[in-house]
Amino acid sequence: MESEKHWTQYDSALAFEASSDWPRAVEKWRECVNKTLGQTEECRAQCEVASQYLPEHQEVSVEGMFEKAAALSLSLLSCQQSCVAQVATRAGRISAQEDFLPTLLEHLHIAQFKAGDLRGAVQTLRTLLLFYPSDKDSLSNLELYTETLGGDTGLQGTQPLQDIAQYVSRSLLEKKLLFFGKENLNFDFTDPDLWTPEEVVPEQLRDAWRAEKELLNEKLKEEENVLEMDDSGFYAGGPVRQVGVTIAMDDHTLNGTNRVVLDGVLDQKECDTVLRLATAAASAGDGYRGRRSPHTPHEKFEGLTVLRAVKLTQDGMVNQSDAKLLLEMGDTVRTLLSSYFRSPSDLYFSYTHLVCRSAITGNQKGRLDLSHPVHVDNCLLEPETRQCWREPPALTHRDLSAVLYLNDDFEGGELFFTDRDAKTVTARVKPTCGRLVGFSSGPVNPHGVTAVTAGRRCALALWFTKEKHHRDMEREEAEALWAADGMTVKKEGEVKEEGEGGAAARARSGRSGGQASRSPGRGVVTGGKDEL
Ligand SMILES: O=C(O)CCC(=O)C(=O)O
Ligand SMILES: [Fe+2]
User: Domain 246-517's class?
Assistant: First the structure.
């Protein structure tokens, strides 16, 4: 049981990290580091005990004595080196967690930084640099930490953790001896570490050593991919029952997890109606709560919320049936995605937003920026560490994202998914009328939009949450206003509004009950707004 202590610390450190409880995460990572070191020492001591019982040979020559002595000490060292892997292997598992101690230090310095313990973070990072002295990410992090600390001269003297410094130099010495034995005495040795510098390996053994290391690195990557598993509870591949709607791309063709592209969700007439709404709203003034969100100075950004659309109908600026279509499209999207992603629980609207991005003419040459930088919808992506922090200002309650495209008469404006590094593009989607992209809002789905260099790109963006208390109050307010106006939102199966008979209406006919069938007359609710 005792030997499992560091895994207990490891798991609780991860849990504190996930809930952004940084001080406690620091405490647990530190304990985990110490326990890991303690376990390693214990394991090494066992090697010494075991080596005393090596079978004795009878009469040997002096030459043979040397060889025997060398073989004995090399076996002892090899056993001690293998403790790295032993300590990094969970009970019941076959393989070790590669690069274990450096990984712990990586977690620790990030937690220390997040908890505001910059001095601690610098010390841990310096310790990590003992393993990987020229690692670019660590060096730039060190720069960031020291800059953040300003002119704190005391920092210069921050030393790496003493016991780990000793651990590293002892390990290097042992590796040198073991590699010597491998080269000259035919001694079998497999290096358990990824951080071993090339200089330690005799030239003749380097090629084989590199190949071995490559294999270990691949394994590490595989482990990272396992981390890319989505814990959202969604499971892509459920049925799409609406007539006329087809699956254009799935997880496989989109090269990821819980992503889908559906075509035929709207027909041209419906797209035109919503585009008209966008134009009317834009000409009625600033689109989005008096706020523009210019991700880039080369584009104009206009938005319209469902509530604002309903309010505009009251002022006579917008057709009632057009505003209603906006509300109902949301229902269609929810039905489609809830079924396709086999949602384990009810999905509530978290936010609905009609967004148009227009290229500013004469200002497009040589643009290198994006219309929407790479991000994850429900956490803060940190590409350097490949982590995604589920904490404000990220809208952490968002579970499922959807973008329903309305037009294609513009240049650029492709949606793309990336790896967690925010650089490696894994899939691209070209917007077109009636195309719906759905994906789980978490770290498996970083995405961005390429620059819109000509024309206006409009899309209806929607987010859904599994948490009822995070449902969109604006949407409820819109429905209440509608009801107060005598324009109750129709129930399933009711007569169609004139001018509305396209794909959305067809799609809705497959739906049973839901948001649109709530009774009118409830009070107007405000507050609890979501946002972009
Ligand atoms: O418009 C798109 O294609 C994506 C927009 C997006 O990612 C967002 O608003 O979070
Ligand atoms: Fe997004």
Answer: mainly beta
Nearest residue to 395 via CA among 530, 298, 497:
530
DSSP of 85-96? HHHTS-TT-SS-
Q: Are 336 and 246 in contact (CB under 8 A)?
A: no
Residue 454 bridge partners (DSSP)? 411
Q: What is the identity of the amino acid at 241?
A: R
Q: How far apart are CA 395 and CA 484, in angstroms?
A: 31
Ligand with the closest atom to the CA of 355: 1
Q: Residue ranges of the domains in the chain?
A: 2-227, 246-517
CA of residue 417 to ligand 2 center, whole Å: 10
Q: Specify the DSSP class assigned to residue 156.
A: G
- Ligand 2: centre distance to CA 114 (Å): 25
Tell me which ligand sits closest to the C-alpha of residue 371: 1
CB 493 within 8 A of CB 514: no
Q: Are 91 and 4 in contact (CB under 8 A)?
A: yes
pLDDT tens digits for 95-138?
A: 678 889 999 999 999 999 889 898 899 999 999 999 999 998 88
The residue among 243, 451, 445 whose CA lies nearest residue 332 is: 243
Residue 467 has pLDDT above 90, yes or no: yes
Going by C-beta distance under 8 Å and a sequence separation of 6 or more, which residues neighbour residue 335?
242, 507, 508, 510, 511, 514
